[in-house]
Write the structure tokens for this entry.
Amino acid sequence: MGFLDILCDATRRNSLELIAEGVETEQQKTILIEKGVHIMQGYLFSYPLSGNDLIAFLKRPLENKMA
């Protein structure tokens, strides 16, 4: 059992939610989803944004965020 498996198991047993940071590839995203991790952030979703760019990003329709 790898570290990610142990971490996912421990959070599940303790009714906690695991947040994955630094997700950069579709493969990483797929693995995390398969292990029950559904909250993620990283370059796969967006590069770091300035305050103004973040506001513009959040105003975009949901369809664009899910692409």
Helices lie at 3-13, 26-34, 51-59, 62-65.
